[in-house]
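Student: Please help interpret what follows.
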Amino acid sequence: MSLYQPPDIEENVFDVNEHGYPPTKPSRSKSNYLVVDLGQWTDRALGLAFNALVTASTEATGYVHGTTLKWGLAREGRLRFNANLRLFSATKGVLSVNGPVVNVIFIISIILSYAASSTVLLHSSILPGFLGGGDQVPTSVIYFLPPIILGTTLILQAILGLIAFFNTHVPTWSSSPLDITSALVHHNYIHHQPQRCMRSVSKTNDTSTDPIRPLSRQPSAWSSHKTVARVVWFVWGAPVIWVGWIFIWMYALPYGLSSGGGVTPLRVVGLGLLRLSGVQSIVTVVLHCCELVTTLARDEAVWRAASTPAGARPAGNPLKAVLRSWQSVVLLLAKPSIHWFFGINVGMGFSTGVQITYLAVFFPIVLFFVAVFITVASTRRPSGPQPVAYGHVQTLADLVDEWSVTMYWGHKEDRVLGQPWPVRHAGTTKDGPLPPIRMEEFYAWRESEVSLLQNA
């Protein structure tokens, strides 16, 4: 890798020729940009690395923001699910640490950070004589603005996360829905409701206490969480939005800013970043919405482990929880990869501004596969009689009747005062795997049966 530092020039204007390339002698101070001679694959590998850095940083600060938001909603009595669209959920108070103003700042900073990461290395070409003669040489230029925006937005997210961290009481930092529910029950935010041992989250609004038979197939996340359907439809609309945006960009807006001389690179790069961020917002919001579905699937997998021989463990490392969920792993890898591919499709030149490449026609296909993935994940119906919860805290509080380090769920059979008929009840225990559920029998506690058992 060779570095070229242009000489000091008094003019503060970057002239471009009719082809949009830098002139033989640059007219910009060397303190503002640096020409870097990189190969194509090195350039793209560094672009992917920058996007991976942004993903790691935003995931870390996002976890703090999401956890503090969760407990803020719990204190207001508005926490329903362990998983939330954190950028579109807010506590009361416009200026609270998890309020709408902070969410807007988070959204803008995340969008700008991904846009800046894709433009740290700007594309350009050097004319003969610029580096000693020869043909035009594709190269990269590091301009001061994108790195400053990238660093500023990441620091801003970290500051917001620290403010939320120091101003919110968090009983547990675990991401496990069982650990969250246990803490909510312990602090009296929610309470166990009897007679609901076989009712899934889809029966939340069903106040009946009549015994019911178990189901062999459980409802999907689509039918159990009203926001999931809206998320999936939005993700399916993203390819259409993308095509429409590109059409407007190509035919309704002026292409680039390099059609004449005397254009400052600050204006080219600055306005280019704004345009890039506008389209980048589609990708950012789509991937954030997908996170809701993958987290619901992960939370359900944690709960369904209770009916396996290994049992369910409420406490756990948040990073391990992500790595154990294939849906979460796919999304975690997709975030930097899709943003990186977006940067290849819609790049930005040092002198030409935003550039749409021929690869842009493939990006709607990428969004199509994202939509297929999220649709499959949201419409999958788990098999077995264990009621689904998808991290719904009240449902989990109703289904779990015995909290322990390792919990096993299954059939519990008791007899009431020597009566020959059994009280059919499903629940949890710490004493090892329970017998399988009896599919033809009815399950539910009766008020009279509960009182008799308590007095026995």
